[in-house]
Amino acid sequence: MSAFSAARRAEVTTRAGFRCEYCHLPTRGPVATFPIDHVIPKAAGGSNEPSNLALTCPHCDSHKWAAALGPDPESGEPVRFFHPREDVWDEHFA
Ligand SMILES: [Zn+2]
Fold this sequence. Notes:
two-stranded antiparallel sheet; single chain; globular; about 20% helix; binds zinc ion
């Protein structure tokens, strides 16, 4: 069951350009419904405000889940996940 209203889901989905805000996978295709992610997890004090919500494909959602940090693929050191409102995609994933 979604924690978000249909209006909020439509707002987040449209703002995202109908694609995952982390990997840019389009919503059209084999996956019918993308989850809405809390960029800053609720457990870490993140809000339900639109500025803290991101459209997320199931793959990215399962990897990020309720974390704000993940291991750097090269160093293994904890690094902050991409933030769709604060980071530039091409720079973050360069
Ligand atoms: Zn994704």
